Amino acid sequence: MSRLRRIRAEAVAAWHSFLRRRTAVFFTFFFPVLLVVIFGALVRTQPTGGGLFAEPAAYYIPGYLATVVLFTPLSRVGSEIARHRDDNRFEKLATTPLGRGEWLLAHTLVNVAIIGLASLLILGLVVVLTGAAVPITPRLALLGPFIVGAVVLFCGFGAILGRLSSTQDGVIAASNTIAFPLLFLSDTFVTLELLPGWFAPLVDLSPLTYFARGVRALTYGPAIEAPYGRELAVVAVLAVGFFVAGAYAIPRTD
């Protein structure tokens, strides 16, 4: 079996495995929708009120997208590794030609497809429910590379968590412990002006910050002329680094 067919076979199996888990489908597609409905349609932004959600609705598009780009890969890939380890599946995979990098690539491709669909749903809901004005420009097409790069990055991160955590529950706990602070402290929902001055430089240490700033430069009118090349380059470099580290962290299957 060729490498392409091995990756395709594993990806198809991972896709069907995802669809069979209703809880995973719910949290991937409907949890972000609930956030949009609650914060975007019910709470609503107050552009002149100050405080949290004081910016126009389009400003928070990176935050809504970050919920799936961040949480889904961390928990799904980490849980899959823990599940495979608990069920001795890696020992079975060791008898096949499937390599560690191929296994992670297959599951990353599935996550890219799932999160791509969820991102389209979220973006559409934000526009419809909040009235956010997203500038339609050629640079909007770069939203795809940002999402793909971030998914690859956090799939690799999830693989590392799966290796370090001893159980599936441990993976979920670790991913939530990491994801929740990153979600709100990476220039997504909370602006830098609301943070203490000493903490602002630490925001630049979060990989999600570069995703958020890059997406905002593509989707938020007042920031539409902002540069995004540096952010895209950082996301791409981190994606490659975390993917390689994640593939190395997977128990040997070759």
Question: Could you walk me through the main structural features you see in this protein, from its secondary elements to its overall organization?
Answer:
The chain has one domain. The model has no long low-confidence stretch (mean pLDDT 86). Helix 3 (61-86) packs parallel to helix 6. It is globular. By secondary structure, it is mainly α. It has helices at residues 3-20, 22-43, 61-86, 89-93, 100-130, 143-164, 168-184, 200-203, 207-219, 229-249. It is found in: Membrane. It is a multi-pass membrane protein.
Overall residue-averaged pLDDT value = 86
Name the poorly predicted regions: none
The end-to-end distance, rounded to whole angstroms, is 14 Å
Helix/strand order: HHHHHHHHHH
Membrane topology: Multi-pass membrane protein
Pfam families: ABC2_membrane
GO molecular function: ABC-type transporter activity
Keywords: Membrane, Transmembrane, Transmembrane helix
